[in-house]
Write a structure and sequence with these properties.
This protein is mainly alpha-helical. The chain contains 16 helices and four strands.
Length: 401
């Protein structure tokens, strides 16, 4: 499949209009079950919106914007410009619907406003990435407005000592504070540097420099050293599984830091290169995808009988979602393992390897990715990872030409 066909899959099935949010999944005709306003207000099936198609609107849309801007910067295509504007409006909406400053919604309900109360660092940072990429693009004619949006969110999170707020005052979900994990440290450094790039304030630069050279509580490594390690050890020691998809935004952020920060460039380039080494051997798993069209019921409402009031408790909310996950994977979407864990992991691996900064790794990764993509029946896929494949193809064209 060529990049144009992948693009048609993304926009024909997985970009939710008119809101401009990339969905998690849809059927072969692009139909899916959008939560109602009441379901979001009740936090049904859970306060994270996990297992619904609006679970990762900020996450996926931010990544996709970042890639499309790279594409536009090379070819100046008018249609790409129009699509970027649509997605940027979608990112704006995810900030505007919240009542707590710094909160970025995952997606919106059928009324275009209601939303689940929990965000996360996996939503917040790609939102920053997307808007920051737009801010630096010639398409951005409202730079002061974009700057204001970014600084509002970043200053709010920084004021919370880098806790990511829920849209419930006093509740936070995830934090960069004292993170010793590569993913948290890299996102922390990226966000802190973006603040300086936007303000030009020497105090913000000093803050960032001290952060990079400083040590998280309990760590024998500085943050810049942690960044240099890449994330493979965290997947083994902390998660015990392959989840390259959740590391993609931090990887992109580290790549941007390598361009902005000459003093720490060697640390950051080593980190992205190590990520490329980690992911290179996973890309061939694309060919393991079975192209089956059954085993994925888009009706997530089968989880609603398992709903519980989370009582404004973050641990309760997560526990409810994880209990639902057992039934979700076994009874509702058994094929999701093939689509997400096998194919999705391999596609995100390809995206990371292509953008790792090492030409030899990047070119081989692109070759493997293209060979695998041709083996996939994209019509059979319910998850939206055609956008990941398209991003990989975009960056291969931009980087390797």
């Amino acid at each position: 499949m060529n990049i144009n066909s992948l693009h048609e899959q993304v926009w024909g099935r997985f970009v939710r209009m008119p809101y401009g949010h990339v969905l998690d999944y849809a059927d072969q005709d692009g139909k899916t079950c959008i939560p109602t306003a009441k379901e979001c207000q009740m936090a049904m099936p859970n306060p994270l919106g996990w297992w619904t198609p609006v679970e990762n609107g900020a996450f996926f849309t931010g990544l996709y914007v970042h890639a499309l801007i790279a594409k536009y910067n090379k070819d100046k295509n008018k249609q790409t410009a129009k699509e970027i504007k649509t997605l940027i409006k979608g990112l704006y909406l995810l900030q505007d619907v919240g009542s707590v400053e710094g909160f970025i919604a995952r997606g919106v309900a059928d009324d275009g406003k209601a939303h689940y109360p929990f965000s996360s660092d996996d939503q917040f940072t790609p939102w920053v990435l997307g808007l920051y990429s737009y801010y630096n693009c010639e398409l951005c004619l409202d730079r002061e407005a974009v700057k204001s949006r970014l600084l509002r969110a970043l200053f709010a999170v920084k004021a919370r000592d880098w806790d990511i707020p829920c849209d419930v005052e006093g509740l936070n979900y995830c934090s960069f504070k004292n993170s010793t994990a590569w993913r948290g440290v890299s996102k922390h450094l990226f966000c802190a540097r973006v603040i300086y790039e936007l303000t030009g304030d020497k105090n913000d630069l000093e803050y960032y420099k001290e952060l990079a050279a400083g040590y998280p509580e309990g760590s024998i490594f500085s943050r810049r050293e942690i960044a240099s390690h890449g994330y493979s050890h965290d997947l083994v020691a902390i998660l015990g599984t392959k989840q390259n998809w959740i590391c993609t935004c931090a990887h992109f952020g580290l790549g941007i830091l390598a361009k902005l920060d000459e003093e720490n460039r060697a640390y950051y380039k080593q980190g992205t290169r190590n990520n490329g080494i980690t992911t290179l051997g996973i890309i061939d798993d694309i060919k393991k995808y079975d192209n089956e069209k059954d085993g994925f019921d888009i009706n997530w409402r089968r989880l609603n009988p398992m709903w519980e009031d989370y009582g404004n408790s973050v641990p309760n909310g997560r526990n409810i979602a994880m209990r639902q996950n057992v039934y979700w994977l076994k009874e509702v979407v058994p094929h999701r393992r093939m689509e997400h864990e096998i194919l999705g992991n391999a596609l995100f691996s390809a995206l990371i390897a292509v953008t790792c900064g090492d030409e030899k790794i990047s070119r081989l990764a692109a070759k493997k990715m293209k060979s695998g993509i041709d083996c996939v029946d994209w019509e059979s896929l319910r998850v939206s990872y055609a956008f990941v494949a398209e991003c990989g193809m975009i960056f291969d064209d931009v980087i390797n030409g």
